[in-house]
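Question (not urgent): is this output format expected?
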Amino acid sequence: MRAQQFTLKNRPKGILSSEDLNLVTTDLPTVEPGSIKVRTLLWGVDPGLRMRLSGETSYAAALPIGGVISGFTVGEVVEENDTPFSVGDIVTGAWGWCDFAVVQAAQIRPAPERGGLPLSSLLGTMGVPGVTSYFGLLEVGDLKAGENVLVTSAAGGVGSITSQIGKIKGARVIGLAGGTDKCNWLTQSLGLDGAIDYKSDVDLDTQLTEQFPDGIDVVFENIGNRMVDLVLPHMREKGRIVICGQTEDYNTAPEERYGIKNTSLMIGKRLRMEGFVALDYADRYEQARAPIRQWSKEGRLLTKENITIGFKNLPDAFASLFTGSELGRRLVAADESCTR
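Got this back:
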């Protein structure tokens, strides 16, 4: 059987373009004992992948030239050989940008219980974005009821979930996003206490002062060094800055990224800044999924998904993450049936 794959052709400069990739057709290997053949139903596109494409190694190794573009996936087992899975099972994994793949059974997981949520939730609230938000805010951020929270990129897939968990836990939450429509969605649909529009004519420092006259206890940060430097003077004593992503910096060479200057404030204010990835909590995912399922069922945790149909649209969907136009979780589905 033949399969289509996107592989890395060039190290991208700036935002990824189709010229940086090859769309190749390849023969799939035989399904050996302990492996399965899977048809991909859904692909998640996540900003953190951008660093690997540039050749940088962080929590995951740099993607080599010629390698299949990586990413979280949902699929259906179409063949198996001596594995715990059966044909027709829905599974999750990270076999990447390919329409079919042969993978070791040890590298995939049965789809978790969705509790009536759509299939797409496996790459959203029930997937890495959900557990990232849960553990990042509640454990790394050590959130307490009544605290002041700033979530940057709050209208994105992770930011929107994080913001709502903050509200559920009794915090005062302000979201930062670009544009009136996004800010209105945050306050009117998600119930945030306020929103900061980075595209506004009013500078960010002034808006932060207006929204946080008493300072910020927790920042859930998804933008990059410039934002970290900007919020440091607004932090309260014993505040926590949770570094989840750096979308503004991913497309910039390391030597050209903004340098953080206000680190001396971390001493006087006794601040803590910590980075993390959801994989740190892989053995505890169900601890996050259980309340997320319940909150979703109760209508306390809402989701917004932007789903493009068609495998070949993956490069454009990924590039759109960095234009500031996206609202909610960005996904690509094999066909319309995969969105239900």
